[in-house]
Amino acid sequence: MELFIILGVLLYLGIALDILQTTLSMQGGGWLTSRTSHFFWKCIYWLSGKNGESKIMGQAGYLLLASIVVLWVITLWLSFTCILYGMPGAIVDSSTKIPADFIDLVYYSGFSISTLGMGDYVPATNIAKVLTSFFSFTGLILLTMSVTYFIPVLSAVIEQRKLGIWLSTLGNSPQEIVLNAWNGKNFNPLLDKADDISSSIIKYSQQHRAYPVIHYFHNTDKETTVILQLARLHEALQILSYKIPDEYRPQDRLLKPLHTGFQNYFKVLLEVTHIKLKDTEPESSKLDALTGTEFFGEQKPQLEVPQKIARHRKFFHSLIYLDGWTWDQVDPKKS
Predict the structure, then answer these.
(1) Which of the 8 DSSP states describes residue 303?
(2) Is residue 152, in this structure, part of any structural domain at all?
């Protein structure tokens, strides 16, 4: 019977740590929550046929959020049941004083955690009384923390959708973003927004760190989904940084806010997600729409692209693939 007590204590410590780390640490989800979320998304991903426009993927976020709370409740419930099962006679029928069997213990544990306090079964020992009070408070705290966790998560999801819509106004392809940024003299229409865009990307990244579950709130609208918009902007940034002739290329200090925003984005997502990066880098950004423009000419000058940029592009390639999209939706064949 001691084995059940040990098992119950381990389950309690594990789930309590997971809940605290997920809801309070601001450093990503707990071990159990993170792995469960990743497995849940993989199942949704395969059920949807890897189609980013599938309604199934669009429902994944809130189903996952509900599943996480159910997982917390069931594990906490199971931990209390195991502890009581390892203490024969600790819980008895309030009328007959007959010790509760396993099913009765499951029932008693459930209404204790839910703080309902039905009263048809009662603790018969002092230890059982203390444990009942302890798990009742734990259940109350769990429900409170779940509600307080939902609110900022849903707020972060709204911010995520807003960012996707805002970035979609920059252009529908990397080339279009570059062309829209050119005013005939320089790229100030985009550069003037660089600080605001960088700040929004950093905020989005930190929300991912605090609430990794928002990664699984999928937007089925390919025109405004944030991952495609970020990938397009990142590709446009590489064009501006390495493929525009020297006389027109923006100064590094003007592009630095965008580079900083993306560096933070990659750092955070690598920490909070458990994806396997693709080995292949996506094909280079198309430049046909830029050829012959006043700032580009017929030549296609190109500086040496840093190795870390190739790694970032592989990361975007992986994220887009695992979100049900393709690289052609980032950089359409016909720009």
Answers:
(1) P
(2) no
